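Page 42, continued from yesterday. The earlier attempt failed because a stray header line got pasted into the input along with the sequence. Redoing it now with the clean sequence only.
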Amino acid sequence: MLTARAGEWATTADEGVVEWWPVAAPASERELAETFAEISQVLLGEPDVQHTLEKMCELLVLTVEGCDHAVVTVVRDHHLSSPASSDDVGPAVDAIQFEVGDGPCVEAIREQQTVITDDLATETRWPWFSRRAVETTGVRSMLAFRMFLDADTLGSLNLYSKEPSSFNHESLAVGTIFAAHASVALRAAQAKEDVTRLREVIAARELIGQAKGILMGRQGISSQAALDILCRGAERLKMELRDMARRIVEGEEEKGLGR
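This time it went through. Structure tokens are written below.
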């Protein structure tokens, strides 16, 4: 295992691929703890995954020294996308990586590594990507952290700068801690979405059950016959089954109010 003294960071023999590093001390450990306590509180307060991803990118630029632009890169079912960013630069850089199938963000996901490059203008690891990225976006240095978003989705948290050698050992350490907090916040947001979806399913089932009961009472038909009527009505009107059920239930309630 590589070792280093406080304030240093190390790379593997493959330059720019970070295997291990110490958490460098910021201005004070207390300040760092307080900063990340606030970041965690903000991220955990977001209502869903998309808002959490967007807030992550916004906070990265404010938190990590040297970061001008931030973007989240995601691969799901072998398809790469950029669902959130601090501005338009990150997605523009990602688009080049997606096109050529290589680059620091792709490598971070593929090789399960933290990847850093000091200057894309002289970078030789991704020749098809590097020069185009500099010419198109002006980005010079990059730092990419691997993230696990869920069981079926991998991603990377990517930091970009218009200046060469923008990311130092402190940027790396703070970014690593940020990525860990972000992963926790994302899991919490995913859990919120799961609960919301479950509640929606339960509510839809209850609504459909009420509508079936109304039709059964009106027409003296079976539960299956009432469901068939609902399905045919939804198909004819090109609406979701739950919306068809809601129309029947609300219509019955309006009739009751009019009596």
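Notes: The chain has a mean pLDDT of 82.
Reminder to self: strip header lines before submitting.
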